């Protein structure tokens, strides 16, 4: 059975969705860069080992990332799952875990990388927004896409209502993506694109229920 480590910085609702999904893998640990990350308590209550590597204890990104990698490697995970882990990672860290490091981002990448994705989508008047699970590459919020969910933008949407609908989809697609990974359903091809063995299943999962 594969094992995963989940990295969080705050609320941890995606981490909770992963824990509740009863995935076919061992959740070796939940690690946070913040001692007061709300999600840590949830993980502890569910019997998951937790660890904190505070970025405040390190003078630069490289030394923080080295300490983080040491902690991660102590759990010997097959995959490192970023679930609202709000730190920019160094190229060295990302390369060390290439093909094993997965992120969820609240937009349809490559559109709206970075912060404030919902406000920017509303500002631009896009009609379709969403979320993306992808392998992490040194380019921030880029990398081979595993799954996306589209969310229609409604005329009365505020940042809050749109964020809530996107988050619902995040909670649906992240467990799906990690399930595929743990079941060896996903491969990265020579062009750095994701190949999914169960094409039919993915076709249904890509579209949010409102658009089906
Ligand atoms: C989620 O919306 C996730 O997509 C986003 O942070 C939120 C964390 O919520 N991640 C990023 O923006 C990464 N670039 P959560 O802690 O409740 O899972």
UniProtKB/TrEMBL annotation:
<dbReference type="InterPro" id="IPR002376">
    <property type="entry name" value="Formyl_transf_N"/>
</dbReference>
<feature type="binding site">
    <location>
        <position position="103"/>
    </location>
    <ligand>
        <name>(6R)-10-formyltetrahydrofolate</name>
    </ligand>
</feature>
<keyword id="KW-0808">Transferase</keyword>
<comment type="similarity">
    <text>Belongs to the GART family.</text>
</comment>
<dbReference type="GO" id="GO:0005829">
    <property type="term" value="C:cytosol"/>
</dbReference>
<feature type="domain" description="Formyl transferase N-terminal">
    <location>
        <begin position="3"/>
        <end position="178"/>
    </location>
</feature>
<feature type="active site" description="Proton donor">
    <location>
        <position position="105"/>
    </location>
</feature>
<feature type="binding site">
    <location>
        <begin position="12"/>
        <end position="14"/>
    </location>
    <ligand>
        <name>N(1)-(5-phospho-beta-D-ribosyl)glycinamide</name>
    </ligand>
</feature>
<feature type="binding site">
    <location>
        <begin position="86"/>
        <end position="89"/>
    </location>
    <ligand>
        <name>(6R)-10-formyltetrahydrofolate</name>
    </ligand>
</feature>
<dbReference type="GO" id="GO:0004644">
    <property type="term" value="F:phosphoribosylglycinamide formyltransferase activity"/>
</dbReference>
<feature type="binding site">
    <location>
        <position position="61"/>
    </location>
    <ligand>
        <name>(6R)-10-formyltetrahydrofolate</name>
    </ligand>
</feature>
<dbReference type="Pfam" id="PF00551">
    <property type="entry name" value="Formyl_trans_N"/>
</dbReference>
<comment type="function">
    <text>Catalyzes the transfer of a formyl group from 10-formyltetrahydrofolate to 5-phospho-ribosyl-glycinamide (GAR), producing 5-phospho-ribosyl-N-formylglycinamide (FGAR) and tetrahydrofolate.</text>
</comment>
<comment type="pathway">
    <text>Purine metabolism; IMP biosynthesis via de novo pathway; N(2)-formyl-N(1)-(5-phospho-D-ribosyl)glycinamide from N(1)-(5-phospho-D-ribosyl)glycinamide (10-formyl THF route): step 1/1.</text>
</comment>
<dbReference type="GO" id="GO:0006189">
    <property type="term" value="P:'de novo' IMP biosynthetic process"/>
</dbReference>
<protein>
    <recommendedName>
        <fullName>Phosphoribosylglycinamide formyltransferase</fullName>
        <ecNumber>2.1.2.2</ecNumber>
    </recommendedName>
</protein>
<feature type="site" description="Raises pKa of active site His">
    <location>
        <position position="141"/>
    </location>
</feature>
<dbReference type="InterPro" id="IPR004607">
    <property type="entry name" value="GART"/>
</dbReference>
<keyword id="KW-0658">Purine biosynthesis</keyword>
<dbReference type="InterPro" id="IPR036477">
    <property type="entry name" value="Formyl_transf_N_sf"/>
</dbReference>
